[in-house]
Amino acid sequence: MPEREWFVDGHIPARTVTLLSGDGGTGKSLLALQLGAAMALGTDTAGLAPRPGRCLYIGAEDEEAEFHRRLAAIVAHHGCGLADFGDRFHLAAMAERGDPILAQPSRAGVLEPTPTWRLLTDHAADYRPDLVVLDTSADVFAADEIKRPQVRAFITMLRRLAIDCDAAVLLLSHPSLTGINTGSGTSGSTAWSNSVRSRLYLTKPGGEDADPDTRVLTTMKANYGRIGDAIRLRWQDGVFVPDDGRSPAAELDAATAERTFLALLSKLTRQGQKVSPNPSPSYAAKLFAEHPEGRGTSRKQFAAAMQRLLDDGRIKIVEEGPPSRTYKRLLVTAECFGPAASNLGSN
Question: What pTM value is reported for the model?
């Protein structure tokens, strides 16, 4: 039996259509550019290993100069220049070159290819790309995204292009508000997700302490692989790189939380206030997050800082009070002397 072909192993199959969706501003266009550039340069990118080959990128949202700026940052990250692409990367910035629509409905509601589609297929037949990127579906598909027959007809057109060129087709899209709120990343008819063979969703992690530079690329559908796989990425100097959780910003925030924790613990101790290591009205993380000098650090960040400081021995847990009503409080280790020093617990 012939082996299944992949553009990116486990994520983007060859000879068919993959949908990459992402909220506005998440960077799906940048990620697609990185994949195309990496295949043209024969290298890995963002923790992914695309098959070396040729990329044809149809971009309808940005001007050519913007694409060049992004590509310049990408090749610089790889220690190369734009000339190193040779003939392996073709870019058509349709925002300033003409009508990007590839398919639109006739008066009878039947989806029909446009002259731009015929230009695309003619060029692809000569160029023989290994990857075709269409950025985005809202710009190249002029029919109703809710009408299942029209959506399926469009994906069928793209699948035929992939088969004829022996290429992967990567279609970028914006999710609907419902798709964002539910975390599904979908938009319009379910035919978009049902018709493609792989669907990826690029998101920004939510939450109070989320780093604005981090992203998560999740496999939402994979007919030929596992679903649910997630790759953590970080925006750094104009490109996405694998996120190891130890970003300079995160480390700086952690160091700030530790310094602020020590300063506030010392101050409150001198004022005679007892600060507790356990959840309570006097819980350290709660008190410090609400303190005017908390420097905007969250309760969760202070709790993590407290544990690190305990692990490093820079703060100590002290037991005080009579045997019948002992309680625990926190003290800065360097300030533990006199009677309190003899009551230090093993923690």
Answer: 0.73
Averaged pLDDT, 53-70: 95
Please report which confidence band the pLDDT of residue 296 belongs to, taking 50, 70 and 90 as the band edges. confident
Task: Give the pairing type, strands 111-113 and 131-135.
Answer: unpaired
Q: Which residue did the predictor score with more confidence, 117 or 327?
A: 117
Q: How far is CA 37 from CA 49, 64, 118, 126, 251, in A?
A: 11, 15, 25, 20, 31
Contact assessment for residue 81 and residue 75, using Cβ atoms and an 8 Å cutoff: yes
According to the model, what pLDDT value does residue 341 have?
43
Q: What pLDDT, on a 0 to 100 scale, did the predictor assign at position 180?
A: 82
Look at phi and psi of residue 146 and say left if phi exceeds 0, alpha if psi is from -120 to 50, else beta: alpha
Which tokens is 89 given? Answer: 């990367």
Are the C-beta atoms of 134 and 169 separated by less than 8 Å? Answer: yes
Q: Within 10 A of 218 (CB to CB), how many other CB atoms are there?
A: 16
Amino acid identity of 324? S
Count of Cβ atoms closer than 10 Å to residue 284 Cβ: 26
Q: How far apart are CA 13 and CA 167, in angstroms?
A: 9
CA dist 142 and 163 (Å) reads 23
Which of the four pLDDT bands, split at 50, 70 and 90, describes residue 264? very high
Does residue 145 contact residue 21 with C-beta atoms inside 8 Å?
Answer: no
Task: Specify which residues 299 forms β-bridges with.
Answer: none
Gap between the Cα atoms of 188 and 144, Å rounded:
8
